[in-house]
Every structure is written in C-alpha cells, then in structure tokens.
C-alpha cells in the first residue's frame, strides 16, 4: 500500500450531513459580499423588483443576483453563462445564493435592467469607505486608460479609411473591366475568365462605401463604429490604434481605492475638472489635491479646478516646436513679476505692449516684445525666424495660477512617481481580471455598468486586504 493520505469513498453515506455553512470559513470573502448586499437599501439605490406583487410567477430577489455578479467579478467570471455553471458546482456560491441557480438569461437581464442600481451600489461602498475615514489625506491621482470595446477595428470607419477602400474597389472594378475587354477581343481565351457575379458584388460594395463616406463625413466625430456605435478608434501604447473606451478613474494615494470612475470615448485632455468634481461630490468637500499627467494639462481646466477650491498638480508638456525650428524655447524667457516684463536669453527686457485674444480658445493674452532691442540683437537668428517682426511672448491673464502650480510641482519632485504608482496599478489589476476581451457589452450604459462592477469588486478586495475580512464584516454591520 502506498503511504499517502486517503480520501473518503464516493459511495460512503453519512448519518449526519454537514451544514453548508461549515464549508465557508469565517474569513471567506463571500461573507463580506453577503453582509454588504444585505446592509444596503436596494430599493433606494434604484434596483427593480425589490417589492413585488403577490400575484404571478415569483422572481429572484435583486440581492441574490447582485451577490452573484459581485462574486463573479471578484473571481474573474463575468460571463452570464459561466456564472450559471458556477451556481451548480461552486460551494461558495451555493452558500452565498442559498442554493439558488438562476439561468443565464435571467443573470444577463439583471445586469442590463439594473444599470443605475449597480452604479449606485458602487458609489455606496465608496461612501462607506469615506465614513470609515479612508480618504483622510484627500490626495487623489487621476488617469485614463483605453479598454478594448466589442467593436472590431475592421468595423470602424474614418474618412481616410473609407477613401482608401473606395479607391481600392474602384481599382478592382477597372481591372475586371479591362480583363473583360481583353477576353472579348480574344475569343480563344480559356483561362482567367472573369466572374460576372464578382463584378456585381464590387459595384454594390462601391455604392455601400459611398453612402458610408457621406455618413462618416456628416458625423460630429468623423468616425463610425458599426458594432458598438459609442466606441472610438484611439491611440494606445506602442503606437497602435484600437477601438476602445477611455475609462477615467480617481484613486486615493493613501489606500489606493478607486473613488470615482467614468467611461468616456474622448482623450484625457479637457477632463481634469470633470473627474475632480466627481471626487468632490463623493467626499462632500472641495479641499482636495489632484495629481495628473501632462495629458490633462489645459490652462482653462486648471483654473476652473482651482476656482472650486481644489489644488491641481499637472506638469506641462512642451508642444511649441521651437527647438525643431532651431530657435529659443519659450521656457528660456523668464518672467519678472515685479517689473511685469520678460527677460530674454540676451538679458533684454520685453515690455508689455498690448492685449490680444487667442484664436479658437478665446483666451485673453498680454503681449510682450521690444522692437529696438530685438532688431539690434546679436543672437536674433536664434530667437526668431522673422526678418521684420521681433520675438513676441504671449502671457495668459491668469498665468499666475499656472506659475504657482509649477512652483508646487518643483517643491514636490516625487509627485509624478506617486501618481504613477497610485493610479496605474488598479488599471492593470482590472484588465488582468477582464482578460483579453475586456468589455463584453455594448453602448455607454451597459459598458458603464460593467465598469462599475469591476470597480466595486476591486474596492472590496482592496478593503479586505487593508482591514481583513472579519474586521470589514464587523465594520459593514456597524
């Protein structure tokens, strides 16, 4: 006989069957899910069928299906069909759902029909974290990350792509017509016969593409995604382009909890104030500090954020292109606040001359230059390419706000590292849970619901790591 631990016989019966509760330890995460869902008011959060009529066929309580989804997203099981299978074989789910086994259609419909309730449940957990004083530092890092949509790249069209496809089809039609003319002139030709049906298909395809071209050009975004109309072709890492959603998150730098999130289909630039306002709403205070990368740098956004009472720390990227032109960068011109002048690299003072308005943005600018000093300057060729006009420096009337922010950034050199270590880890974790497919649903409403479930699962797991399962259960009950 082998010296190994022996299991029980599959045919062995027991006089006293174990209770299902004996299979779930006290520190099992399913106990946190169970307590959290039982303690919140599902009706007030917007879930349907909390209160039902006494007639008709009974339905599943929304608490049952919400527990199932939270468990699934916590354990990398997002598919409704896979969740249905798990309810039949997973002991933890048998305990959590009290041996109920909804079918996949019921599970999928719950996520589709309770979008608002699921989003509010995610916000409710963040509110509970706030009540536990988890956000005492009030410093948050924000960033956006591209999450692949259901829409394939081949089903996404831009003006450039449609033009290329039309030209290719027209070229193919001309080749077919040329071959047909050759065959008509050579009656003995037996090979390379042209298929008439192929030519008909190409002409029909050309009509479709011409109609699609008009549709794309008329679209506000100059882009159409046929499978998921809300998704957009975006630049991702390694210079590749994919059809994605851009998910914005704000993460607490102390405990790395996701405080707010939003699914968008636009770039990061211009979303600084929007994300910060969501954080302020969650925390019920305006006194917060926001860390962001240079992709969020927009002077109007930074001023709007400062006006709310928050502080922004956003580094400025150099987009002037002066170095490529072989002339001095604007950063080499120092502003003297006392004299209200700019000191150029040749140590000449550029005086304030007039006001102007920036084309496109409407920003009010102050103009600084010195025609005489610039005309006689020995390094003029390194400062401006114009033979007549002097080098002019434009200063936004609220530039002082940006200068103060830059001073705070220079006083805290670790800001960029802190932001990166804080906000990028949750993105990596959630994408790992999602796998290669990322989102499973289409349109903003359903994709936002999916993201809320991922964020709720992430925050639950993070809180269990911080407090411990049993301590978190006690806190949720309290």
SSE blueprint:
Layout (H helix, E strand, L loop, with lengths): L28 H11 L2 H4 L16 H13 L5 H10 L1 H6 L7 H10 L1 H17 L7 E10 L7 E2 L1 H27 L10 H23 L5 E2 L6 E4 L5 E12 L5 E7 L7 H12 L5 E3 L7 H9 L3 E3 L8 H4 L8 E3 L4 E3 L5 E9 L6 E6 L1 H5 L17 E4 L2 H13 L3 H20 L8 H25 L1 H9 L1
Parallel strand pairs: 1-7, 7-8
Antiparallel strand pairs: 1-5, 2-3, 4-5, 5-6, 9-10, 10-11, 11-12, 12-13
Helix pairs in contact: 1-3, 1-17, 3-16, 4-6, 7-16, 8-9, 10-11, 16-17
Summary, kept brief:
The chain is of the alpha+beta class and 478 residues long. Helices cover 46% and strands 14% of the residues.
The number of helical elements comes to 17
**Class derived from helix and strand content:** alpha+beta
CATH 4th-level superfamily of the largest domain: Ribonuclease H-like superfamily/Ribonuclease H
| Secondary-structure element series | HHHHHHHEEHHEEEEHEHEHEEEEHEHHHH
Q: What's the alpha carbon Rg, rounded to whole Å?
A: 31 Å
The rounded distance between the terminal residues' Cα atoms is 55 Å
* Count of domains: 4
Strand content: 5-15%
Pfam families: DDE_Tnp_1_6 (PF13751), DUF772 (PF05598)
Protein name: IS1182 family transposase
Domain Transposase DDE: 343-464
Domain Transposase InsH N-terminal: 19-112
């Amino acid at each position: 006989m082998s010296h190994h631990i022996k299991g029980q016989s599959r045919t062995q019966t027991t006089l006293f069957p174990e209770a299902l509760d004996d299979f779930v330890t006290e520190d099992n995460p399913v106990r946190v899910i169970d307590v959290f869902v039982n303690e919140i008011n599902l009706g007030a959060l917007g879930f349907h069928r909390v209160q039902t009529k006494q007639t008709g066929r009974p339905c599943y309580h929304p608490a049952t299906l919400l527990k199932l989804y939270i468990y699934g997203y916590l354990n990398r099981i997002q598919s409704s069909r896979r969740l249905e299978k798990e309810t039949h074989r997973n002991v933890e789910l048998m305990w959590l759902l009290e041996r109920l086994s909804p079918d996949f259609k019921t599970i999928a419909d719950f996520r589709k029909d309770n979008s608002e309730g699921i989003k509010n449940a995610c916000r409710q957990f963040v509110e509970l974290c706030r009540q536990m004083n988890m956000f005492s530092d009030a410093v948050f890092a924000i960033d956006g990350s591209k999450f692949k949509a259901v829409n394939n790249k081949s089903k996404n069209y831009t003006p450039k792509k449609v033009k290329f496809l039309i030209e290719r089809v027209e070229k193919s039609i001309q080749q077919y017509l040329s071959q047909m003319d050759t065959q008509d002139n050579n009656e003995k030709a037996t090979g390379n016969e042209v298929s008439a049906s192929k030519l008909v298909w190409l002409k029909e395809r050309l009509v479709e593409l011409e109609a699609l071209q008009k549709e794309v050009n008329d679209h506000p975004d100059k882009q159409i995604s046929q499978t998921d109309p809300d998704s957009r072709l975006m630049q991702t890492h390694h210079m590749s382009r994919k059809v994605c959603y851009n998910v914005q998150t704000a993460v607490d730098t102390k405990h790395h909890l996701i405080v707010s999130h939003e699914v968008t289909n636009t770039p990061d630039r211009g979303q600084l104030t929007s994300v910060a306002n969501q954080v302020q709403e969650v925390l019920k205070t305006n006194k917060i500090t926001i860390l962001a990368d240079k992709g969020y740098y927009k002077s109007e956004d930074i001023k709007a954020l400062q006006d709310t009472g928050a502080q922004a720390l956003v580094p400025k990227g150099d987009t002037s292109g002066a170095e490529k032109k072989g002339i001095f960068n604007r950063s080499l011109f120092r502003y003297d606040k006392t004299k209200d002048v700019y000191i150029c690299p040749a140590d000449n003072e550029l005086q304030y001359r007039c006001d102007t308005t920036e084309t496109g943005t409407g920003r009010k600018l102050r103009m600084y230059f010195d025609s005489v000093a610039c005309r006689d300057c020995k390094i003029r060729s390194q400062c401006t390419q114009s033979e007549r006009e002097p080098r002019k420096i434009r200063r936004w009337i609220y530039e002082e706000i940006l200068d103060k922010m830059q001073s705070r950034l220079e006083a805290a050199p670790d800001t960029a590292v802190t932001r990166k270590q804080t906000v990028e880890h949750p993105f990596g974790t959630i994408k790992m849970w999602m796998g290669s497919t990322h989102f499973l649903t289409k349109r903003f409403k359903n994709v936002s619901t999916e993201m809320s479930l991922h964020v709720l699962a992430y925050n639950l797991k993070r809180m269990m790591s911080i407090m411990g399962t049993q301590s978190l259960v006690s806190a949720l009950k309290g």
